[in-house]
Write a structure and sequence with these properties.
The complex is a heterodimer of chains A (238) and B (383).
Chain A: H1 5-9, E1 13-26, E2 29-42, E3 46-50, H2 57-64, E4 72-77, E5 80-81, H3 87-97, E6 98-101, H4 113-118, H5 128-141, H6 157-169, E7 175-179, H7 187-204, E8 207-211, H8 215-218, E9 223-228, E10 231-237
Helix pairs in contact in A: 5-6, 6-7
Chain B: H1 3-11, H2 15-47, E1 53-58, E2 66-67, H3 69-75, E3 80-88, E4 91-92, E5 99-100, E6 102-105, H4 107-113, H5 121-129, E7 133-137, H6 138-144, E8 151-156, E9 167-176, E10 188-191, H7 192-198, E11 205-206, E12 208-213, H8 219-229, E13 237-241, H9 242-251, H10 256-285, H11 287-296, H12 300-336, H13 347-374, H14 377-381
Parallel strand pairs in B: 6-10, 7-9
Antiparallel strand pairs in B: 1-12, 1-13, 2-11, 3-6, 3-12, 4-5, 4-8, 7-10, 8-9
Helix pairs in contact in B: 1-12, 2-9, 2-10, 2-12, 10-13, 12-13
Classes of the chains: A alpha/beta (238), B alpha+beta (383).
């Protein structure tokens, strides 16, 4: 991974959301999630999005990750308007730019830790040897090199989440999108995971957007935004 | 690791389900292979029939006799190159269960009409010279452990001897083979003269006449000429191409093709339901995993190919094992039931089995693959 990333890219805008609205329809009923949101995320930022259940924070994260589309508005990633991408273009864009970390790890149960980490690299043209090197480096970074051949069921929740982090960073994406990454683990392990994310942000310049409802977790971010009733009600540095 | 490895890991993740699904597939293709080998063997007589060979039988049915003089008249017809009178003997060896398909024939004519029969020159000479000669097919010789030079008693369940008894003694002078493995070498032949002189009834009659025409184009006019000539006689004839004769003979057993088709349809319908259900269940369980793969950047098309690939992999592994089992089964059947015609899994059967594996894999995988293709990431992850 490129450790000079942060210095090169600091303070340039990575994301720009313009008048983004999201509505769901249930039968004839239209349910607004949020309306006319504007926000930008700088490269190298560690941003926490907080809010109560149903506030739309996961929906927002999904739209940033290109797995959900806004009802209206524009989502810019660098100089590309991703809300207009086709499904296949979005898949390629996600593979090239984003690492995902989920609340419940979402590892493939039939694959070893190393194979799970290797998964995103199948979308690249890297040789088998290079893939192996990258997997080893990623597992070393999360301090799980000795568990490379273990299946997810043979690991604790914290270890599984570290494998998920290794999977998210193995292809050296610009951005990590984390959906409640500590929602399923104890406080001590949560702190370890969050420290690791902070480390990836500070030392490797990874931009991190983390959705959480946990204030303690949010404190690890450099900036926190609160989303409630469809609008940002508070915004500031932690 | 590649897509193939992922497919392999996915189908082997639930061992019991995999075993049961594979078992069902193996059984279905084993039934297919065995029944097709059986059908092919039954049809071999039809398929191997020469285009220029005709059979003349009694018009009432082929169990009724014809005068032996008919053979001479038929042979004299312009366009008939060779003919051989043949009579069903109803033979058995030692006990009734040891049934032998056995014919009294004119020895030299047999070899000119049925050129598929191959015997060494020395044995041919002995076959023509010895009145009590027996020419045995390799399959029957192996079945009873007969060898050249043996003198064997063979009984008839139809005929008796003038001197009493039902048993004739023969010298095994020739053991014939055929270059075509589908040609049944279970038939046994002996001299009509020896038979005719010693039998207690039916003298100077024969069962049917096999004849060869110079050109298949002459078949139709010759059929008309023969049957017209013997019309209104005491022994009216019915002449037909050998293919039609053999087909009619097989159809006496019932519509084998229809029975086999129904059995196969039932087997494939069941397997379709079992494997289809198994695949659908497997994909439904993996909804979140598929959503995660799509999130990571796997395109819907790639996921579609992988799911379809999994069902094809299952169908081909199970199908190949089933065909392998069928190959073993027909070999065992040939040993246990020697009277069965040669059961061989011909390349056409293997090819058609491959086609059915493809079809099975496609039909069981297409709906789960489409579901996975259409899977909405957000909906799947929020389940």
């Amino acid at each position: 991974m490129d450790t000079d990333n942060r210095q090169i890219t600091a303070n340039t805008t990575l994301y720009n959301l313009k008048n983004v609205s999201k509505h769901f329809t249930r039968g004839r009923e239209v349910i607004p999630i949020f309306d006319n949101l504007d926000m930008s995320i700088k490269r190298g930022e560690f941003l926490a999005i907080m809010g109560p259940s149903g506030s739309g924070k996961t929906t927002l994260l999904n739209m940033l990750g290109g797995i959900d589309q806004p009802t209206s508005g524009e989502i810019w990633f660098e100089d590309q308007r991703i809300d207009q991408f086709s499904e296949n273009a979005l898949a390629r864009w996600r593979a090239a730019n984003i690492g995902f970390i989920f609340q419940f790890y979402n590892l493939m149960p039939m694959l070893s830790a190393a194979r799970n980490v290797e998964l995103p690299l199948l979308l690249t043209s890297l040789s088998k040897k290079r893939r192996k090197q990258s997997v080893e480096a990623a597992l070393e970074l999360v301090d799980l090199k000795d568990r490379a051949e273990h299946k997810p069921r043979e690991m604790s929740g914290g270890q599984q989440q570290r494998v998920a982090i290794a999977r998210a960073i193995v292809s050296d994406p610009k951005l990590l999108l984390c959906d409640e990454p500590t929602g399923d683990i104890d406080r001590k392990t949560s702190n370890e995971i969050l420290t690791m994310l902070q480390y990836l942000n500070k030392d490797y310049g990874k931009t991190i957007v983390m959705v959480t409802h946990d204030f303690e977790a949010a404190k690890y971010a450099a900036r926190i935004i609160h989303l409630d009733k469809g609008r940002f009600i508070e915004q500031g540095d932690s | 690791m590649g897509d193939l490895y992922l497919m392999y890991k996915n189908i082997t993740r639930k061992k019991l389900r995999l075993c049961l699904t594979l078992f069902a597939t193996v059984i279905a293709f084993m039934i297919y292979g065995t029944l097709m080998a059986f059908q092919t063997a039954l049809n071999a007589g039809v398929d191997l029939s020469a285009n220029n060979r005709l059979i003349t039988v009694n018009k009432i049915n082929f169990t009724q006799p014809l005068p032996v003089s008919y053979a001479g008249w038929i042979k004299s017809l312009n366009g008939v190159t060779h003919s051989v009178p043949m009579t069903w003997f109803g033979g058995y060896y030692q006990k009734m269960q040891n049934f032998i398909p056995m014919f009294a024939v004119k020895p030299d004519s047999l070899l000119t009409v049925y050129t598929e029969i191959t015997i060494p020159q020395q044995q041919k000479k002995a076959w023509l010279q010895n009145r009590q000669a027996l020419m045995v097919g390799a399959k029957t010789a192996a079945r009873f452990g007969w060898k050249l030079g043996d003198r064997v008693p063979v009984s008839s369940n139809i005929y008796s001897k003038k001197s009493g008894g039902h048993t004739w003694d023969f010298d095994i002078v020739a053991i014939y083979k055929s270059s075509n493995p589908q040609f049944d070498t279970s038939s046994v032949y002996f001299h009509y003269k020896y038979f005719n002189k010693s039998r207690s009834f039916g003298r100077d009659t024969i069962g049917f006449i096999a004849l060869k025409t110079r050109d298949p184009k002459l078949n139709e006019p010759l059929i008309k000429t023969i049957d017209h000539h013997f019309a209104n006689s005491f022994y009216e004839t019915k002449t037909m191409p050998e293919k039609a004769f053999n087909k009619a003979f097989i159809e006496q057993l019932g519509n084998i093709a229809l029975i086999i088709t129904f059995a196969l349809l039932a087997a494939f319908f069941i397997i379709l339901v079992i494997v289809g259900n198994s695949m659908a269940l497997a994909i439904r369980e993996r909804t979140a995993e598929i959503a995660v793969m799509k999130t990571l950047g796997f395109t819907s098309g790639r996921i579609f190919r992988m799911i379809l690939g999994e069902s094809l992999m299952l169908a081909f592994v199970g199908g190949a094992a089933g065909i392998g089992a069928a190959t073993g089964l027909v070999k065992i059947a040939a040993v246990l039931v020697p009277t069965l015609p040669p059961l061989i899994l011909q390349p056409e059967i293997l090819l058609s089995a491959g086609g059915y594996m493809l079809l099975l894999g496609f039909m069981t995988g297409i709906i789960p693959a489409i579901s996975a293709f259409r899977l909405n990431i957000v909906t799947a992850l929020s389940r």
